[in-house]
Amino acid sequence: MVSWSEGSSSSWDDDSQTNQLPTTIPCYEWSGIAHELSSHCMHLESCLRQVPFQSTDAGRCFLVCAKEKVQEKCGYLEWIDPEWSVAMQFCIGKLWSMHDKENGDRIKEHPKLLGEEKRKMEEELQFFKHDFAKLVVDKEDVINQLGSARLAISDLKEEIEKKKLADHSSTNLHQVLRAKAEKERDQLVIERDQMKEDKKKLECIIADMMKQNNGYKDKVKKLKEICDEF
Is the CB of residue 18 less than 8 Å from the CB of residue 4? Predict the structure, then answer.
């Protein structure tokens, strides 16, 4: 087990321990918790795979404590890849020195440019704040409009339901009146047919009475003739 020694420009000794860990970069091939390895930190838990970046050990795979919070980490560090050669470490250190020097020279040579960039960033930030405030106001307006639209839709649904009930009631009334009219019509048809039957019966009775009346006339005539003979 080894740990990261702050301020050193080369590999770290196995006996050094500190809470400062190297800056790392994401690595697809070496990441996540190493459950399959036998290495465990001081918490007796599986370690986290890491790859350093800003150091002469850049690119060497190592294991550290997997606790997420910095104050909970135990400072465990175990190198998996062998230490780079002295020449490789020198080259990596030289590259970082050149990088740092270039950044320092850029800052010294272009203070006005940095001030201008800072001013632009402040203006962009101000614009972003203004735009964000406008978005908040627009959001409130949209919410209010949405609420009004929901109320309008609710009123429209209620009106449609009332209209449906009214149409249903009107349809029921129409059906009742129609049924009543059909019933009265059927009753009139029955009464008409009954009157026709009664008329036929009355005609028969009148015909019979006429026949009987003619018979009475003949009898009276005969009786008169008999009386005239005497």
Answer: yes
